[in-house]
## 1
Amino acid sequence: MLKAVILIGGPQKGTRFRPLSFEVPKPLFPVAGVPMLQHHIEACSKLPNMKEILLIGFYQPNEEINRFLSCAQQDFKISIRYLQEYAALGTGGGIYHFRDQILSGSPEAFFVMNADVCSEFPLPEMLDFQKEHGDAYSFVILGTTANRKQSLNYGCIVENEQTDEVLHYVEKPSTFVSDIINCGIYLFTPEIFQHIGTVFQKNQQDMLLEEQSNGWHRAEVIRLEQDIFTALAGQGKLYVYKTDRFWSQIKSAGSAIYASRLYLNQYHTTHPERLATNREGGPKTRGKCFMSERALYAGLLMHFFYFILGNVYIHPTANIDPTAVLGPNVSIGTGVTIGAGVRVRESIILHGATLQDHSCVLNSIVGWGSTIGKWARVEGTPSDPNPNDPYAKIDSETLFRDGKLTPSITILGCNVNIPSEVIILNSIVLPHKDLNRSFKNQIIL
């Protein structure tokens, strides 16, 4: 029997996902048309012996989370529960705090996954990899290759190239250690709790030695990466399974657009029914069109109007004029209205938004219920990895550089109104704003 634990975190100060996280918990933000968490759950549910999926975090249970759990259980026919931490306990503290629930039913092994990653989730391969090592007490980290410079932003793994054993682990080193990085997806056996328990006991002893303690719960704050993996490295208990399939973090809104592109491309093999294609007189939410944009504008479409370019997801409830042009890498949410002549590329349009006639949205996220007026232009600067470097990852964006807002995608919060013929470039607009002029490189409060 197998189980899975998905670490969903909780609300934090200064999150890079604002203002989008004001409206919905980050793990429920739609990526490629479905909540971020659904990709994890679907991958876990495909494993034959998977009996239960546990979500661990410190979000307050609310209607959105409860509704998502209810729908996911019905869709995937598997037990899914949310376990709320009383505080942020770290990646190791959370699973240790709920160890009884994880071990209930005596699972042979369990996966632990960070919610803010996008991946093909090679879970069956990780199980086979663990069995090949013939050690029921070994643990597996999913790793991938990054370039030397970007590896400093991740946990770095030094391996034995013959056995794949982790010899050394450093979280975000200050100098180059290895180009194999931690993907935030792990396969553990129940024995991992002995190692976490050792750290917990040490934390308690350290607190007793301190003259002033900041709170009894500090002993339970345990980090898998720094506290557990660093200690296990070199002991013959920790191994790395390396994947060359797609993987990315989803730390910022810009990385959500990149993750959407990766998942939309994967839909060709996993969910072709989610990809929109073209039909006479309007969109059809199946298949894909390979018509080039150059051919589109050259008028080589004969009597059909093809308006889907590349991979596009369109929710069936969206109302889209047949003269709009969407794609590549576009996700259209529920109840969205898109008018005549609209152009959307590399963007996510969220529930209830309206794009009026001849507006243009490029490299942007348009928030729930927002309206973009006629002939308005909303555009951002993509923050994609270097396409010429096969090992490049998306950079961790800093909001400001040299005292100026870093050019990135444009984000409109919920219920933002952009008037006709206005240009919004490389800006972040907080919710419930009625703009009256153009803005460039601004945070509009």
## 2
Amino acid sequence: MSGTSVAPTPLLKDELDIVIPTIRNLDFLEMWRPFFQPYHLIIVQDGDPSRVIKVPEGFDYELYNRNDINRILGPKASCISFKDSACRCFGYMVSKKKYIYTIDDDCFVAKDPSGKDINALEQHIKNLLCPATPFFFNTLYDPYRDGADFVRGYPFSLREGAPTAVSHGLWLNIPDYDAPTQLVKPRERNTRYVDAVLTIPKGTLFPMCGMNLAFDRELIGPAMYFGLMGDGQPIGRYDDMWAGWCTKVICDHLGLGVKTGLPYIWHSKASNPFVNLKKEYKGIYWQEELIPFFQSATLPKDCTTVQNCYIELSKQVKAKLGKVDEYFIKLADAMVTWIEAWDELNSTSDIPKGPAK
């Protein structure tokens, strides 16, 4: 095809699944139809499995409820959270594609400052297909973007970059705040569109949000476990952040990159801060122990696969965070169960990982 026009085939059409956790009819997909319809959807239904979830006509999808999860995983289904958006990680496990995009059902299409609809999926794909720069910060942010390059003093030996494993998108309108911040800033809205993508440096953690997130399933998928949250657990709303902390430690070890920034979606509604506080309050205390744990976590050089790294991290969680609360002993066991279940469902994929650093 000649000229500069965009090819009609959507990027990675046959290599990407969209994973959506939900408890309701997926009317929100109508807004996303121009962008999502060419792709395969994996819908993970939370809550009552007897409820029929309606999906708009014309979408290619598979839908799993709790009964399906129990049937497919058997006893190992205990590692998949119930009555919490962490159930979405089951979709990551059963996908057969190289890439995953996950979005919440209260997230709509945002507009850029010119008023044009933002194709969030396309931007995530660009982020994932372009190298990251975790080992040396470029002050022009993404050096591979049109109109930018590596600045003076940037080592030439690092300019090839590293494979990008995670693309973390942001949100306009309702900010992703914890309950105390929600309570003191109930009317605050995020109206600031920052036209930038940057690589989070090696050794730096971040609070990952799962409502607008893409990742290379082959590079980092087994680390994208959203933990034990929700029904029967003492904590909620830390599922995506737990996955983010584990993933970042493993990406740093394997020499992989994590990006944050564009694309934006429109987060349509705020969840109840009082309900959130009930879910979060233990986490608000525990995070003061969790962050130093992840900041100091190191993995041995012989951990060269994501699975090896994750099992090793689970041992450290049990040994060190088990002293904080017995919940972390249970979580460490679930991390191992998750990897066992992942390997059972993905036994044919012997996937090369990034080089150990």
## 3
Amino acid sequence: MERSNSSWFGWWRKKAREGQGGGRRRDREKVVVDGTEIRELVEDREAFGMLVDSKFRQLDADGHGMLSVSELRPAVEDIGAALGLPAEGASPNTDHVYAEVVSELTHGTSQGEVSKAEFQEALSDILLGMAAGLKRDPLVILRMDGEDLRDFVAGSRYEPTAAAVFSKVGFGSEEDASSLRQCVLAALQKLTVDHGVPPASDTWVAKNIVEPALQQLPADQLEQQPASRDDLFQQLKKLLCAIADRLQEQPVIVAHTENHYDGSGVKRLLANKFELDKLLDSVWKGLPVEHKNKASKEYLIAALDKMADAASLPYYGAVKEVDAVVDESIKTAGVEEGKAADEAEFKKSLTDILRAIMLRLNDKPVFVSTNIVVHEPLSGSSTLLK
């Protein structure tokens, strides 16, 4: 099973299952998550205090009243998952985010251990930051039970969509020697939640939804070359109907987000000198001493991540297209690797990088749509907001 954000989506899964009362079926099958629940939890001192007590006891394996870095790891992993980052150790470009979370949780301690009060304060800051991000970019939790897919297959959109999909993947010509299986699976990868199809690239969906549906098509035909374009259309339709049947038996919960990065958030930040100066001061003060003494791409990325919410940018490592823009902008700033940088130079470099990011995104905006299958939590897995 793929790593997922299940520990943070438990109650959203429950809401998506139950729906929200009356109204159209489509409206009952989705829940918009805008950070309100997280914010209300943190602001409810009694409820948040009880959560902190419970989680602190759960993480404090040796029971001595302080959390070591190793004991904090389960909480850090859950926070990373909620931010949509790869697992720690999977990518050097995002591992620094985990280091930043650990630094935030252990701030002010000399032995790298955290008291319950420090844990509560740091966790509050992190969750409120997440809530602010969700308010800006809400998350939609979709419950996919096959009904939307059936509507798509039976409606007027099916044939033109199928024609466009097969054209994109290059199938359907007389010279094409691809098997029917290859054709319909390639087409399936191009369909989205807008068509009622859960992410076919997800290994759980492939194993539990797509493969059983494929088994309902004649095995001998699947290995043959499609006889015609109509044959392709009909076989894909049969597969989609079989997938809809599987979804009716076993609905899939999908977390859907859409983000449009055009540099406007960076422009607003740069135009507000008071906010920009205040943020730069905060970032500089929070920068580890070793980074102040030795400039590097790593420390600039860490600093930019601290400014991401204010600039309406994703964390580095979350969106590869934006990562490429950041990389080019850092090169443009001409920061010399390994050279010591004082406060003024640091702030100027960050401002120059932000301005370069703004210009690049304004010239070529990045649109990102993500769909993450929300799996049931693994037995015994750590949870933070369960």
